[in-house]
Automatic annotation (TrEMBL):
Ranges of residues in domain GFO/IDH/MocA-like oxidoreductase: 156-217
InterPro entries referenced in this protein's UniProt entry, alphabetically: Gfo/Idh/MocA-like_OxRdtase_N, Gfo/Idh/MocA_Oxidoreductases, GFO_IDH_MocA-like_dom, NAD(P)-bd_dom_sf
An annotated Gene Ontology molecular function: nucleotide binding
Domain of life where this protein originates: Bacteria
Pfam families noted in UniProt: GFO_IDH_MocA (PF01408), GFO_IDH_MocA_C3 (PF22725)
Residue ranges of domain Gfo/Idh/MocA-like oxidoreductase N-terminal in the record: 2-118
Stated name of the protein: Oxidoreductase
Length: 319
């Protein structure tokens, strides 16, 4: 088992602590939080060992799980990597691309591994259709959330849209040709609602919308490709796959057949795969343990996290 320590015991940090304690691949050593009183309260309530300094926690573990505010990701990661520790960093990887590039260089120098917490890669609905997404030509995503003061220290692009940016970059095998976007600050000092259009050199176009001032939650992405439409609902963990194939000569009474102007007939059919039950956060943490133990490439690399941040910043710079 890998000895692991958590930096940050906020909302998400507490979830990580609970899951790491349950995991059979990690031994939870303890955690650090900058708020001493809060840390002692968590220790008293849940029994996790509270370390009163980052250094002492890092020294005691093999893996450092960084769940602190984004602005501190760089310093926390740097301290851990220099001491030869593997790092799991919540998204976004760091506050700037330059910081992310430096962390990547340090990880290579010290021969350790790093993974970024783009948890939607482990969403069961996405996993069920991931292999069906092949050369999409149009992608549309909507990630809407009700207002919550937590996370408003960064633009909605870094808070919410970056999840979909990462999914799109991992499915479109092409370089970006052009990005256009608009964003509006309504409640916060940074944009609370944003829309972006990403055009790729292979002709694919992605249209992304994110809002943290909506009346209802929504986390959906839709892929349109030749002869197929694929929809993923990250929130309800449901998916839909609609495909087309050449129509049979003698279609059945319940077959759905379309005929175009040239007389070509296509049959529409549904091919919805089963959705596995899983805990996405536990799965991403344990996949990192597997990468360390087997010396394999992490599921979401530091490069992936850096590129998602790079595109997110390009979108923000359009505002």
């Amino acid at each position: 088992m890998l000895n692991v320590g958590v930096l940050g015991a906020g909302h998400l940090g507490k979830i990580h602590l609970r899951l790491l304690q349950q995991s059979e691949k990690y031994n939870l050593v303890g955690f650090y939080d900058a708020d001493d009183a809060h840390g002692k309260k968590i220790e008293a309530e849940f029994g996790y060992k509270f370390f009163n300094s980052i250094d002492t926690l890092i020294e005691a573990v093999d893996v450092v799980d960084i769940v602190t505010p984004t602005l501190s990701h760089y310093e926390c990661a740097k301290q851990a990597v220099i001491k030869g520790k593997h790092i799991f960093v919540e998204k976004p990887i760091t506050n700037t691309v330059e910081e992310a590039e430096e962390i990547r260089a340090l990880v290579a120098l010290h021969n350790v591994k790093g993974q970024v917490g783009h948890v939607e890669r482990f969403n069961p609905a996405y996993l069920a259709v991931k292999d069906e997404v092949k050369s999409p030509m149009f992608i549309e995503s909507h990630r809407l959330a009700e207002f919550n003061p937590r996370g408003t220290d960064v633009p909605v692009v870094l808070d919410l849209m970056i999840h979909d940016i990462d999914i799109i970059l991992s499915t479109v095998n092409s370089k970006i040709k052009h990005i256009s976007a608009s964003g509006v600050a309504v409640i916060s000092d940074t944009p609370d609602i944003a829309n972006a259009r990403i055009e790729f050199t292979n002709g694919c176009v992605a249209n992304l919308t994110a809002s943290r001032i909506s009346l209802k939650k929504m986390r959906k992405i839709r892929f349109f490709q030749k002869d197929a439409y694929i929809s993923v609902d990250f929130l309800t963990k449901q998916c839909e796959v609609v495909k087309m194939k050449d129509a049979p000569e003698n279609p059945g009474d319940f077959d759905m057949v379309l005929e175009n102007a040239e007389g070509v007939k296509k049959q529409i059919y549904f091919d919805n795969p089963p959705i596995p039950e899983n805990n996405s956060i536990l799965d991403e943490l344990e996949s990192f343990a597997d990468a360390i133990n087997n010396n394999t490439k992490p599921a979401v690399t530091l490069h992936d996290g850096t590129e998602a941040l790079r595109v997110a910043n390009q979108i923000i710079n359009c505002f």
